[in-house]
Amino acid sequence: MIFAGDPPFRKARAKGGVPGIAADANAWVLRFPTPERAMGARSGGTGFAQDDKSSPTTMIYPIVKFGDPVLEKSAAEVTTFGEELKKLLDDMFESMYAARGVGLAAPQIGISKRIAVVDVTFKEDPGAKLVLINPVIVKKEGRQRSSEGCLSIPDFREDVTRAKTVTVRAQDAEGKFFEHTGEDLLARAFLHETDHLHGKLYISHISALKRDLIKRKIKKLVKAGEW
Ligand code: NI
C-alpha cells in the first residue's frame, strides 16, 4: 500500500508493501503487480482524489490503519437509504479496488456504520459485487484454514480458521433484505467484514503470542513513522 502523495494520512513504507505478493488464488488481500491505477488515483496529494475511470466525483478514501479506535468499536446501524448511501457504496468499491482488496468495511475508511462491500473476484465478475448493509451471520458450517490479511493491517498475514460455508442476512443499497450463502473465500469475507462492524479484527482469531508479535512490530513501525 503506497500512499506517498498523502503525507497527513500515510507515509510510504520503506520496506514491505511489495505489490505482487499474495499471488495465490485464495489470498485474502489481493495485490496486483501493476498498481498504476491506485497510484494515479491518489496523485492529488490531498488524501482524497478523483478516480478517472469512474464518475468524476468518485472519492478514493484512505484506509484507516490498526491503532485507530474507529476499527475497534461497534458500528452504528444504517437506517437511512438513499442517494447519499449509494454514493458512499460506489466510493467504497473504488477505494477497495484502489487498495487492491476484496472486501472493505466502512470503519476502515473512518465511517462507523454497518456497511461493507465485497468482491472476491476483484472486478472479474460485476455480478459478484456484494453490498452488505447491517449484515448478520445467520448460519455457519464446516471449517477452513487459510491465510488472511486486512487492508487496515497491511503487510501482515496469518492463518485463520473460519467456517467454510456462511450465510449472511443483510440489506442491499435500497434497504431490501436478502440472504446470501458463500463458500471458502466468500465465506471468509462475510465473517471478516461482519467482524469489522463489531470492532473486531482478524488478529483476534489468532493466538495471543502471534497477535502480540504483530502488535509489537506495528509499534516499532509507528515509532519509525512507517505506519
Ligand atoms: Ni479487514
Overall shape: it is globular
Say what the CATH topology is.
Peptide Deformylase
Q: Using only CA atoms, what is the Rg?
A: 17 Å
Please identify which CATH superfamily we are dealing with: Peptide deformylase
Q: What share of residues is helical?
A: 10-25%
Largest sheet: 5 strands, antiparallel
Order of helices and strands: HHEEEEEEEHH
CATH class equals Alpha Beta
Taking the alpha carbons of the first and last residues, their distance comes to: 11 Å
Order of strands, main sheet, comes to: 1-2-3-6-7
- β-strand number: 7
| Number of discrete helical segments | 4
Low-confidence spans: pLDDT under 50, at least 5 residues?
Answer: 1-28, 30-52
Bound molecules: nickel (II) ion
Mean pLDDT: 83
What's the architecture in CATH terms?
A: Alpha-Beta Complex
Number of domains: 1
- What structural category characterises the helix and strand content? alpha+beta
Report the portion of residues in β strands: 15-25%
